[in-house]
């Protein structure tokens, strides 16, 4: 393997157990967006239909997530560095790093803004004290950023504390909602008023973790072996993802709203709702800042030695965007960017697993810009956007991954033959 890795390669002493890695994914899955998607799915499906959407949607994400993660484990490199073998060192640095940095910074800002707005609203309802939303967003953004700056171990310990607490609060919220609203009878007789297609349901599910599947190498590079990557990915995403979306669906069916904090406030325990809101945002948002920091490090070519500074820049920008209220205008751009990111996985998987036979020694970081990889990525991104937003067909991000994979295999062989001549 090329020695060009920008200082990101993981040593044997830094490897972690699959359980600690799974906790990172579990913490990422326990988030407000999953509850929101569950609420949307609950409006269009019975609970059986919701389960089917989740199993198929997250099954798709976990598949490419495992391939990305196993390469990260084999090479010890994060996603942005792995991309150097298919888009070239400069292509990965300027194209992929920039896209991932913007996506992670943007999502960090969105989560901070949501947390700040909800925190201010709940404190006002509980105490009558009015806290400016910009101030709440700024303070919570900084606290989340500080956790991310201390890297993988900080994420691990945060999730050890937050995940059990969150699960208890979620369980109590569902129990309280059922008790107050005769939930069993409502669920037994429920029929969706506006049925949704299975493809739409799967697409919504994939959207909640499409980015996470691509950047999984940032965390799976710390795994001890491929088997640990698969166990941590599948067990860290599927069970909790299913649980969170089901909770969102059940709450939307029984109470008419998916927001666990609002449900807890409505049954007289707003403090529990506040805890759930803050912890759910915190455990998810630190991964945005962490991966954003890696992307910024690679973008400026400073490697992991300046990781804390790069993470501070990424999280600081996201916090600033949240505090000054620009996130509402930024979300439309982020939705487009998120559709473009999964095809990155397509070219990387094609290069390592199909052409490179899954062998670490076949990974070579190419100099400059590699046109075969860049063209394949662009083709996949365009197809993902068109089939996901304009001429809707199947699942946009998955279409993009398949197109980028096939394109890279074909174009790489064409470019190699030209070199031989």
From TrEMBL:
InterPro entries: CodB, Pur-cyt_permease
Intracellular or extracellular location(s): Membrane
Domain of life from the UniProt record: Bacteria
Membrane topology according to the record: Multi-pass membrane protein
Main location as per UniProt: membrane
PANTHER family per the UniProt record, alphabetical: CYTOSINE PERMEASE (PTHR30569:SF0), CYTOSINE TRANSPORTER CODB (PTHR30569)
Family the UniProt entry places it in: Belongs to the purine-cytosine permease (2.A.39) family.
The protein's name: Purine-cytosine permease-like transporter
Organism: Sphaerochaeta pleomorpha (strain ATCC BAA-1885 / DSM 22778 / Grapes)
């Amino acid at each position: 393997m090329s020695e060009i890795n920008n200082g990101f390669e993981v040593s044997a002493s830094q490897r972690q157990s699959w359980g600690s890695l799974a906790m990172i994914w579990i913490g990422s899955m326990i988030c407000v967006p999953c509850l929101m998607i569950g609420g949307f799915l609950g409006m269009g499906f019975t609970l059986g239909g919701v389960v089917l959407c989740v199993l198929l949607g997250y099954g798709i994400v976990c598949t490419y997530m495992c391939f990305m993660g196993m390469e990260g484990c084999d090479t010890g490199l994060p996603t942005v560095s792995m991309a150097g073998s298919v888009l070239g060192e400069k292509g990965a640095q300027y194209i992929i790093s920039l896209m991932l940095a913007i996506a992670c910074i943007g999502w960090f800002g969105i989560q901070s803004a949501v947390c700040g707005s909800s925190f201010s609203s709940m404190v006002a309802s509980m105490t009558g004290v009015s806290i400016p939303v910009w101030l709440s967003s700024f303070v919570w953004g900084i606290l989340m950023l500080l956790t991310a700056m201390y890297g993988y171990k900080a994420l691990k310990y945060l999730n050890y504390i937050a995940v059990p607490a969150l699960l208890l609060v979620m369980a109590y919220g569902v129990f309280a909602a059922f008790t107050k609203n005769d939930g069993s009878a409502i669920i037994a007789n429920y029929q969706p008023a506006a049925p949704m297609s299975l493809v739409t349901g799967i697409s919504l599910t994939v959207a909640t973790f499409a980015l996470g599947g691509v950047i999984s190498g940032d965390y799976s590079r710390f795994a001890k072996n491929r088997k640990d990557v698969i166990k941590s990915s599948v067990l860290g995403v599927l069970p909790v993802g299913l649980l969170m979306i089901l909770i969102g669906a059940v709450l939307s069916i029984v109470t008419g709203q998916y927001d666990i904090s609002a449900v807890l406030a409505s049954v007289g325990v707003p403090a529990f709702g506040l805890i759930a809101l803050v912890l759910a945002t915190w455990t998810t948002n630190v991964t945005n800042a962490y991966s954003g920091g890696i992307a910024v490090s690679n973008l400026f070519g400073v490697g992991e030695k300046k990781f804390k500074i790069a993470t501070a820049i990424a999280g600081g920008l996201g916090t600033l965007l949240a505090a000054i209220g620009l996130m509402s205008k930024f979300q439309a751009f982020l939705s487009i960017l998120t559709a473009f990111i999964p095809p990155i996985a397509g070219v990387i998987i094609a290069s390592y697993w199909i052409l490179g036979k899954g062998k670490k020694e076949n990974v070579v970081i190419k100099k400059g810009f590699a046109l075969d990889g860049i063209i394949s990525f662009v083709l996949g991104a365009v197809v993902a956007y068109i089939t996901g937003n304009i001429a809707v067909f199947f699942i946009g991000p998955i279409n993009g991954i398949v197109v980028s994979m096939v394109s890279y295999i074909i174009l790489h062989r064409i470019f190699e033959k030209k070199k031989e001549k």
